[in-house]
Amino acid sequence: MKRLNPEVADTISRFEPRAKASDHSIPDALDVLAHYISAQQRRIPIRPTLDLEAALSGKRDRAFIVVLLRDSLAWLRFFHESVVARASLWTDEVVSGFNEASYARIPFATRALLELFLYTFDTYRRIYNLDEKARSAAPSEAIAYQWETRDLLLRQARAARINWDDPFGPEWKAVREEVKQTNVLSLISKLPAEDRDQVERWYALLSDACHPNFGSILLSLDHDRFNDDPLTFAFAESSASAEHLQLVLDICGAPLCFSWLQTVSFLQVIDAIRNHYGEGVRRFGNGTSDDD
After folding, report:
1. Dihedral, CA atoms, 115, 116, 118, 123, nearest 10 degrees?
2. Which of 138, 139, 119 is nearest to 69 (CA)?
3. For the chain, which residues make up each domain, given as ranges?
4. How far apart are CA 226 and CA 169, in angstroms?
5. For residue 260, which of 109, 159, 127 has the smallest C-alpha distance?
6. DSSP secondary-structure letter at 182?
7. How far apart are CA 111 and CA 216, in angstroms?
8. 181-233 per-position pLDDT tens digit
9. How far is CA 36 from the centre of its chain?
10. CA within 20 to 30 Å of 111's CA: 38, 253, 258, 286, which one?
11. What does pTM read for this prediction?
12. Cα 43-47-50 angle, rounded to 5 deg
């Protein structure tokens, strides 16, 4: 994962964004994410099962449980590592934008990271609740919650806004109901009450900075010519001025720190749930899990 140039990190730290989400600055929050990602070990390929019922055919008792837990563990790994991969990619875009003083690129990547946070939070919340129920249930009942966890992750992996069986043909709109993707804005309403208003505001600010709206116009103006008399709009060849940096930090600083820190906290809980599934595989299978 890319890192901020030291002089760029120092420059960012001297600016005071209009909104903050935590006591962390952008370089501080980025360090938290980078430390977490660098601590992830390279693993063997993930092999979750698309047709679990076929994999379970003929299995009974301990063998049944081991196959179910192994597949659930594989889907947890798939979810976890897909979030890490995308967080790394979009963070690299943010860091490159700062390092190269190409500030107009940063809101696009920040909005993608905020959307990734919303997706991760919603999935994490449901996985966590199912895991809590499974831990407190009798073994025969826990299986149902573990199966539901696995199906939830499968649906999330296949969720789409387009029919990927025919993406360039006439049936591209025919998305099956069971895999139809939820609009990201609807996920904001599922946040804790104390976070909803600020996240909705951030998303609106970032959208205006990404779309051909007033916010994106501000990122292309030549602020040095604002004092012309009479005042005229002049467009800059690059958005690399101190005014542009201040604007990007005002728009992106809070959602960046919030998304990075919250996503890491969710993934750490997912790590604990994965370890719990791995223990189940070892206990029932008298072997080692893929997460060893």
Report:
1. 150
2. 139
3. 29-40+48-185+254-285
4. 50
5. 109
6. P
7. 13
8. 888 889 999 999 999 999 999 999 999 999 998 889 889 888 776 666 777 77
9. 14
10. 38
11. 0.90
12. 155
